[in-house]
Amino acid sequence: MFLPVFLLNLVVWSAAAPQGLNCSWNKCNEWSSDANVINVHIVPHTHDDLGWIKTVDQYYFGTKPELVPVGVQYIYNTVIDEVAKDPSRRFSFAETGFLTRWTSTHTDYEKHKLQQLVKSGQIEMIGGGWVQHDEAAAHYVDIIDQMELGLHKLDQLFGECGHAQTAWQIDPFGHSRETANLFAQMGYSSLFFARVHYLEKAARLRNKSLEFVWNTSDDLKTKILTGAFYQDNYGPPEGFCFDALCGDDPIIEHEDMDGYNLPEKLKLFEAHVKKQATFLRTKHVMLLMGSDFQYTNANAWYTNLDKLIHYVNADPSLGLRLFYSTPTCYVKGITEAAPQLTTKDDDFFPYASSNHSFWTGYFTSRPAFKGMIREASALLQLARQLNVLAAGGAVNDVEVEHMQRASALAQHHDAVTGTAKENVTRDYERRLAAGMKDGESVLHDSLAHLATKKDSTAVLPRQIRCELKNETVCEPIRNLSSFTVTVFNPRGQTVKEIIRIPYYSRSAVVIDGKKEKIDTQITKTFQNQVQSAFPRAPFELSFPVKVSPLGFATYFISNTTSRLSKVTQPIKTSANDDEIFIENKLIRVNFDKSGLVSSVVDKTDNTTYPLKQEFLYYEGFDVAKEQTSGAYVFRPKDNTEKRPATVAKVELSKGSLTQEARQIFNQWMSQVVRVTENSKDVEFTWTIGPIPADLNITKDFITRYSFGIKSASIFYTDSNGRQMIKRTRNAHPSFTYENTEPIAANFYPITTAVLLRDDTTQATILTDRSQGASSPVDGALDIMVHRRCFLDDHWGVEEALNEPGSDGRGLIVSGTHVVQIGPAKGASERARIGQQAVFHRPEVTFATHDGNVNEYVKNFETTFSGLRADLPAHAHLLTLAKWSGKQIILRLEHVFQISEDDSVQTPVSVNLKELFSTINITAKREVLLAGIREPASARSDYDNEFLISLHPMEIRTFLLDAE
C-alpha cells in the first residue's frame, strides 16, 4: 500500500510545529527546487548513552578516560561555542538527562547562550526523552513517564522551541509498534532509527522504502512518517568522521600543502551521496555527521564541514546542494516533495544484524534487574498519586522527582536491556534503590496526612517497606509482637485479594479497620537451602484484604494471643501417591508421577485443560571468534534443548486461603505452584540459580508451558504492555524468512503477556518483568527466564554476562508467571485485567504498634479511597501526578483492543468533576500524550465539559486545575 506523505503530515505538522517562532523547523537553511539537484542535509549530532561502558556520571564528567576518553559536558560546551560563530550552523541534541545535568552545573549566562541558540533555530532538540529508551523491555507506563519527564524539562527551558518534533530512536535494538504509536499520540511528525533486520533492510533498499508510513494502531488509526537510515549505523559516511575518536583525515584544500586531498574527498563524498540517493524517493538526502559521544572538540567538526559545504556548493557540476540541517528540516523537505510512500503494519522484532546474530538474548538479560525496574516503576506510580491526593499535607515533590529520574534512567536502551557493564548496572540499581527509599518516605508522609484525624495530635508510626518481602524476609518486624500492615491500592478499581507477608511467630490474630477479626493462614516457609541468600522468616502469614481505588486499608497483626494458630505444614509426596493436586473452589491443578504439572480442571464446568510445565536450557554457541551468546545475542550451540531435571521432589501445602505445590528439581532450581482462594489463575513462582558454571558453558534457561492448543504456528506477544502482536513461527510479514537460527529467530519480547488460542481455548501467561518468548511447537510457549554467559558477544560491552549474585556464586533470581487457561470467549478481558493487576500490585508498609487498636482507630483513619467510586472495568487510571503550580496531570486509558472480545469494545465514560474524593477540579485542558502539546482541535464528547469518553486502546491526557 502507498500513501502520499503530504496527506500524513498535513494534520501532524499543524499540531506539532508551532508557527511564527524562530524554532529550527521554521528556520531551515534553503534547499534547491531544481529537479536535477540532490539536497544534502548535513545533520551534526551526538549520541550520548546515559550509561553503558561507564556510568552516567562518568560519561558526563569524563572520568575513567582509560575506558572511553569522552565527557558530555565538554560536548555541550564546545558545540554551543562553535554553533554561535555562524548563523547557518545547526546541531541536534537528543538526551534530556544529560542536558539537565549540564544546565545544573553551568551558570545562567551559559544556559542563556544555549537558550538563544535553541530559540533562534540553530540548535534543535530531537527525541526529547530523559533517555533514548529501549523498545523491547520497557513498559508503556515507563516510556510515557520518561518521555514526559524529558519533554517537560525542555518545555521549561526553551518553551515551544523545546517541543521536539522528531522521535529519535537511533540506537535501540529493534522497534515496537506501540512505541511508534505512543510517539504518534505525543504529536511527533516523524520517527528515525538505525537498526533493521538485515533481510528487511535488503528488501527496503530494493524497493526504495527506507522511508515509509508506519500504521501504529488498528484501533486508533494512528500513523507516523518513519525513516530507517541508509547505513547500518547513525554515523557519517566513511572518510568523513572528523572527531577525535575517528581516524579519518581532515579536508586539506591547499594544493601547496602536504596531504592535499580536496579532490579525493569531494569525489568520495559525491559517490556516497549519489549512491544513497538511488535508494530514496525524493531529492533530499540526510547525512548524519556525528556518532557516540562525538563533538568533544566541535571545532574540528565544523571546520571540516564548513569546507565540505563550501567546495561542493562551489561546483554546480556535482549536482549537489549542501547545507546544515536538522532531522525536522529534513522531514519538512520530504514532506514538500510529497512522495508516494509504502506503509507498514507490523513491527521490527526480532532484530538481526546478520544470519547468526539475532538480538533476542537481551529480552531476558539481567532478569533480577528487570524485576527491580518493574517494582520501582509500580512504586513510582503510587507515590505520584499519593503526592497529589495528600497535597494539603507534606510536599514530597523532591522525592518524587528523584524516583522519576531513577526510573527514567533505567529505561535507557543499555539499562533495562541488561547490556551495560556489571559496575554500570550496579550504579543503575543503586539509583533505583535510593528512589524506592524516597518512595517509602512519600508513602509515610502521605499516609500521615490522609489518615490522621482532624483533632488528633498523635504521630503516625513510621511506615517501612520490606524490600525483601518476596524473599520472605522482613527484619523490621522480626521481634515485634504487634504491628500494623497498611495496604495501598494504586488501581482505579477496588482490590480484593490474598496478601502474603513474612512472619516470625506461630500465632497470629489479624484485625481490620472495623476492629473485626479476619481469616488468616500461617504457612511454613519454603526454601531450597542452596538458593537461600538471606535467612528467611520461618513462616508466611496470609490474609484477605479489600482496598478501595487509589486508597489504603490498615490491618492490625498481633501474636500475643495465648492460643497457637494452626500452621499449615507441608506434606511430602511420592510417585506412589494416587493423586497429587492443589485446588480451590474454582480450579484444581494436577501433577503427574514425576512431580510436574499435568492439567488444570475448571471445577465450575468440569473441563480439563492439558498443561505441562518444565524447565529446559540451551547451551550457547562457544566459538569465541564467531557470533556467540552474550548480553545482546542469543545463539544456541545447536537447536536441541536440554533437560536439567526430569523429576521434581514435591511437597504440598494446603491451607484455607492458598494451596501450594513446592517443587525442588535440583540444588539450583525450584518452584512454587500456587492457587489462591476465589481465583482461576495459577501462579508459577520460579527460582533459578546460581546456574552451574561447569566448563564455563553458556546456558540460556527457559520454562516451557504445553497446553495442547491447536495454535497453527501462531502466538501473540504484547507490545510494551499494550497492543497484542500476532507472531507466526518461521515467518515474517515484512520479508522472506530464512531459517538460519530456528530457535533464536523465533523469540520475541514480552513485557507483560504472551498467549496462544484456537477456536475454543485461550492460554495466557502474564509476567512480572520483561522476558523473551517463543512458541517452538504448536500448543507450547517458551519463556526465557535466566541466562549465564561466559563469552562476550562482540557488540561493544566487552564483558561476559556472568552476574556474580550477592555472594559471588552466580545470580539467583525469582519471578512469577500467572497462567490463565479457559474458554477463548472472555479470555482477553480476563487477561487485560490481569496485566494491570500484575503490574500494579498492592504496596504494603509495616509499622510498630502497641496492640491498642481502639487508640489507633481514635486517632487515625484505617481506610481511604482517592476516588469517589470505582472506574469502569475497562478504564485504567494511568497517571495522576503534579504538573506545574496547582495543576495536575491525569491520564485515563481504555485497556482493550477492538480485535478482542465483543463485550469489551464499547466506549466508557468518566466524569472528571466527580472522580476524586480529596480534589476539587475547577477546569480541564486536554493535551497530547506527553502533556506539552495541545491537539489540533478541541474534542467535546458531551454537553457536560467534564464528562469524557474512552474508546478501545485510547489514552486521554488532561491538565487539571485543582483546589
UniProtKB/TrEMBL annotation:
Coiled-coil blocks = none
Q: Which GO terms describe its biological process?
A: mannose metabolic process
What InterPro entries does this protein's entry cite?
A: Gal_mutarotase_sf_dom, GH38_C, Glyco_hydro/deAcase_b/a-brl, Glyco_hydro_38_C, Glyco_hydro_38_cen, Glyco_hydro_38_cen_sf, Glyco_hydro_38_N, Glyco_hydro_38_N_sf
UniProt entry tagged with the keyword Metal-binding: yes
Q: Does the keyword Glycoprotein apply?
A: yes
Q: Which GO terms describe its molecular function?
A: alpha-mannosidase activity; carbohydrate binding; metal ion binding
Signal peptide residues on this chain, from the entry's feature table: 1-16
| Gene3D superfamilies xref list | 2.60.40.1360, Glycoside hydrolase 38, N terminal domain, Glycoside hydrolase family 38, central domain, Golgi alpha-mannosidase II, Golgi alpha-mannosidase II, domain 4
Q: What is its EC number?
A: 3.2.1.-
- Which catalysed reactions does the entry list for this protein? Hydrolysis of terminal, non-reducing alpha-D-mannose residues in alpha-D-mannosides
CDD domains from the entry? GH38N_AMII_LAM_like
Annotated keywords: Disulfide bond, Glycoprotein, Glycosidase, Hydrolase, Metal-binding, Signal, Zinc
Cofactor: how bound: Binds 1 zinc ion per subunit.
| Membership in a protein family | Belongs to the glycosyl hydrolase 38 family.
UniProt-recorded name of the protein: Alpha-mannosidase
